[in-house]
Amino acid sequence: MSTDSTQSTMDRYFELMGREADFGTCYSSEVTWLIADTVEVISGPDAVRDYVVALHATFVDSHTRRYLIGDDHVYLEGDCEPISSEPGERTWFCVAYDLADGAITAMRCYGLGAREV
């Protein structure tokens, strides 16, 4: 995929997520989500979507700080305030996305550890 195609897919993904629509339609049929800190893998579009929704529900506040796009890859750096932390305590994270044929094929999350979702 070109950088423009990668950007277009990610724009659609975040647009659907932002309006609470089914962003799982942006995933390939064999998509995976790796929690790098624990090496746990979630597989399949429905399971990954449900995990991402549940993960976001554990945050009071989340900010994207850096967003880098290349051919077939996206890197998002951000921080959030988990609802289980002290007010004002931030957790930094990075999500790496792999894409092919207009779909997200894999995601790797670094920095959020074994967050209960």
Give a quick rundown of the structure.
It is built from 2 helices and 6 strands, in the order αββαββββ. It has 117 residues and is an alpha+beta fold.
Describe the protein's architecture and organization.
The protein has 117 residues and is of the alpha+beta class. 24% of the residues lie in helices and 45% in strands. The chain has helices spanning 3-18, 45-56, and strands spanning 27-35, 40-43, 59-70, 73-82, 91-100, 103-110. The chain has a six-stranded mixed sheet, covered by helices on one side. A hairpin with an 8-residue loop joins strand 4 and strand 5.
Which descriptors would you attach to this protein?
alpha+beta, 117 residues, single chain, six-stranded mixed sheet, 24% helix
